[in-house]
UniProtKB/TrEMBL annotation:
Keywords: Cell outer membrane, Membrane, Receptor, Signal, TonB box, Transmembrane, Transmembrane beta strand, Transport
Record-level Gene Ontology MF annotations: siderophore uptake transmembrane transporter activity
Family affiliation: Belongs to the TonB-dependent receptor family.
Predominant localisation class: membrane
Protein name in UniProt: TonB-dependent receptor plug domain-containing protein
């Protein structure tokens, strides 16, 4: 009864707070009146499917970016589907529409990837990993991956605190007095019972004020066929308990006196109920595990740039994440698992930059975050710690351009202190971690650039690693990661058949000490988390992008990303897996995107080829996962109907019905279809 009361109180308080915040935002956003406009013209006109745009690759750190205009080229539904196409990215995908999707960049693990949402890093102190499958693409303007960190120096200190950054930028209204609103209505539907309607409303309130509101609902039964190989029959079975019902709403209110003096406040709410199908094990019944998430994020940002000298950036954020996990089939004295978690975070950041000279800028950033986690997990021998964590981050940075040289450097100070209600809190931790980056242009107008960076960073243990079923205090050190990168870029535009070319090649070496190892198969009565790991990672990322114009009115695109990774466990020469490839890390990974469009039509292909992997540290035949090759295609159709843009697309995922797994015992779907339609008013 105590557990039930705790869960009900969490949920009641959550919805009470959510309603209050939502009502306040509602009053702000709807304080203006809509001005309806009619259009009686009945004429169809064609629109270009896409436009020519050369990506900027000549940056001080490696960057890859995909904009919203290109999302349809990838047969993508979520941010995870886009992020999986970047070089150096290894997606961990448990399958299905609602399956957990996280990314590891350059074999460092998902916890080393910071997810930047409109300038503020998202945080999950409980697990340290952000599920990218939660984020739809309807409100996203662009997605970029930065190795090391984003290139600017006036940014929150937390942006310097990850080994890599996935930067998600949402759509900001660009409206005029003549056309003060924009409303987009659309839907996706397809295999596995997918129904996904969405709505976006952009509104210009005045010359300085505007807002945007988004909403989408996702339902899928998640039932797809897979090969059952446990009995050697190679028959088809149906994946069960992989359904999802999810509602996501978000919005933002913008004020801009000018491009150098602006403010915004945003909210994002996500509510889902999904089944967890569990691993496929022969002669076992279907899983009955369920997971509910209710996530709320409210953040604001103010930016002021004085001409030629001073730059100010202030960010604030409040987030709460409610999680309810049940497993009625788990054998214990309580008759199953029924766990509730509620996580809160209060975050404040201030960054200032100053141009000492025209070509030399320095900055200082200071962040403070207070995070806590409540849970009703307890047994006769264990009570949850109820941890609260104070995180203080301070960073000083410098950016200098000198002739054909460009230098950046920063020093990050981190201080972390925990307080617990039950048990013993982890020791306070502090560290200074530097980053140095440089570029050089060998020739002024050749389009060739050389670059290099070094970054030292550490990852503190998550609440789950530090406290979950910690019967005795766990002595854990932060993971320490050193990154070395050297690369070359080439970018050029032309007037002929080839419109533009962008090529990058980066070789890197990463070294991880005190890698935190979690062994979920151990009994919860004994500590199952420890610092055991050392990993040496050597790799190469190569990207190629080009646009071609084969004939008037025709355009072709081609993008190729290649990754080579040698990620060896070098913990101890006495280990049987010494110098074996770490789990779920293919040595070779290729992502290909190509297409052609003409007038109102566009046809695109997207493919992923992964070499073999192993799902445990021992690289032996019994733990082998074979190569897989997945191909997707999309047909895009765009017209003007009554002067209203209409977009339609038909997508086929896994064209050749490849039977494969990304995570052992979690089969991926076979061939599937999706039809999309959108009209903009």
């Amino acid at each position: 009864m105590e557990k039930l009361a705790f869960g009900i109180n969490i949920k009641r308080n959550y919805y009470h707070d959510t309603l209050k915040i939502g009502f306040a935002i509602f009053l702000i956003l709807f304080s203006s009146q809509l001005k309806a406009q009619q259009d009686t013209t009945h004429k169809l006109k064609e629109v270009n499917v896409t436009s020519l745009s050369a990506p900027n690759v000549q940056t001080i750190v490696p960057v890859q970016q995909i904009s919203s205009a290109d999302f349809s080229h990838y047969a993508a539904l979520t941010v995870a589907d886009i992020a999986a196409n970047f070089a150096g990215v290894n997606m961990k995908d448990y399958g299905g529409v609602g399956g957990l999707k996280t990314i590891s960049v350059r074999s460092l693990g998902a916890s080393h990837t910071g997810v930047l949402y409109d300038g503020v890093v998202l945080n999950d102190a409980q697990n340290g990993q952000i599920d990218l499958g939660k984020f739809s693409l309807y409100n996203v303007q662009s997605i970029a991956l930065y190795n090391g960190q984003a290139p600017g120096i006036v940014q929150p200190a937390r942006s310097f605190a990850s080994a890599s950054i996935l930067d998600i930028k949402t759509i900001r209204p660009q409206l005029t007095e003549a056309k003060p609103y924009l409303i987009s209505v659309g839907a996706n539907g397809g295999s596995f019972g997918l129904i996904n309607p969405y709505l976006q409303w952009q509104q210009r309130i005045s010359k300085q004020w505007s807002f945007v509101l988004n909403g989408n609902y996702t339902y899928a039964n998640g039932q797809y066929k897979y090969k059952e190989t446990g009995d050697g029959s190679d028959t088809l079975a149906i994946r069960r308990n992989s359904d999802i019902k999810a509602l996501q709403t978000d919005g933002a209110l913008y004020w801009a006196k000018s491009d150098s003096n602006k403010f915004k406040i945003q909210f994002n709410y996500y509510n889902s109920d999904r089944g967890l199908p569990g691993p496929v094990i022969y002669y076992t019944t279907a899983s009955n595990q369920r997971l509910q998430n209710h996530d709320l994020l409210v953040q604001s940002a103010y930016e002021y740039i004085a001409p030629g000298s001073f730059h100010l950036l202030i960010n604030s954020k409040y987030s709460q994440n409610y999680l309810h996990y049940t497993d009625p089939d788990y054998l214990n004295n309580a008759g199953g698992v029924n766990e509730h978690y509620m996580q809160h975070e209060f975050y404040q950041s201030a960054s200032v930059g100053y141009h000492i000279l025209k070509n030399w800028e320095v900055s200082y950033s200071s962040d403070a975050a207070l995070t806590n986690l409540f849970s009703d997990v307890y047994t006769s021998y264990y009570q949850y710690a109820f941890p609260t964590r104070l995180t203080l981050l301070n960073a000083v940075a410098s950016d200098l351009n000198f002739n054909r040289w460009h230098f950046q450097a920063n020093l990050l100070s981190s201080y972390i202190r925990d307080h617990v209600k039950n048990g013993v809190a982890a020791d306070s931790k502090s560290a200074f971690t530097p980053t140095i980056a440089a570029t050089f242009l060998p020739f002024k107008s050749s389009g060739l650039q050389l670059r290099a960076f070094y970054k030292d960073i550490f990852r503190n243990p998550t609440f789950a690693e530090q406290y979950y079923y910690a019967i005795r205090p766990r002595i854990l050190n932060p993971e320490r990661t050193k990154q070395y990168d050297i690369g070359v870029t080439y970018q050029k535009s032309f007037d002929g058949f080839v419109h533009d070319v962008a090529i990058t090649a980066d070789a890197y070496y990463n070294n991880v000490h005190n890698k935190i190892i979690y062994l979920p198969t151990r009994s919860p009565e004994t500590p199952s988390v420890t610092n055991l790991g050392k990993v040496d990672i050597k790799g190469v990322d190569v990207t190629l992008k080009t646009n071609v114009i084969p004939a008037a009115g025709w355009m072709g695109i081609f993008s190729l990303n290649y990754t080579y990774q040698q990620a060896f466990d070098v913990t101890s020469p006495d280990d049987s897996f010494y110098k074996n490839q770490i789990p779920y890390t293919p040595k070779n990974l290729i992502n290909l995107n190509a297409g052609i469009n003409h007038g109102i039509w566009g046809l695109y292909y997207n493919g992923t080829l992964s070499s073999s992997r192993y799902y445990v540290s021992n690289n032996t035949a019994q733990y082998y996962l074979p190569t897989y090759n997945v191909s997707n295609a999309s047909l895009v159709y765009k017209i003007l109907a009554n002067k209203l843009p209409v977009n339609a697309s038909f997508e086929v995922n896994n064209i050749f019905n490849e039977r494969y797994v990304v995570v052992y015992s979690y089969p991926m779907p076979g061939r599937s279809y999706r039809l999309s339609f959108q009209i903009t008013i």
